[in-house]
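Table 4 source record.
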Amino acid sequence: MKRPLGVSLISYFYIFGAIVLLFSTIFYNTDANSIGISERFGLPNAPERLFRVIVALFSLIMVYGYIRLKKWGFWIMITYSVTFGVISSLLITIQSQQPYTGNLILSIAVVAYTIYVKKTFFKTGVQ
């Protein structure tokens, strides 16, 4: 079965994001005014560099299942996008900044498209 173009584009976008996240782990500097990823996920006391690596590796595992059209990839992508969208919407109400609005829009688009192509993940015979 042929993979939908949108699934490929979303997967490549998340792969790129995971690579950037891993790369930024090397050069990450703590700033008193910046909010790290761990704090955005509601874990302000978690070590930032370790959390970045964990999120990047989780994203790569998620994308593997998503790009291979696995059922678990579908469900993890939906869960991750909804979670990230909720976090972004909460941060929009607290800080009212543009990057969080973009993250929210991306999360909504990923969830909508993934649900739209749901049949490709649940067809019998797809490995």
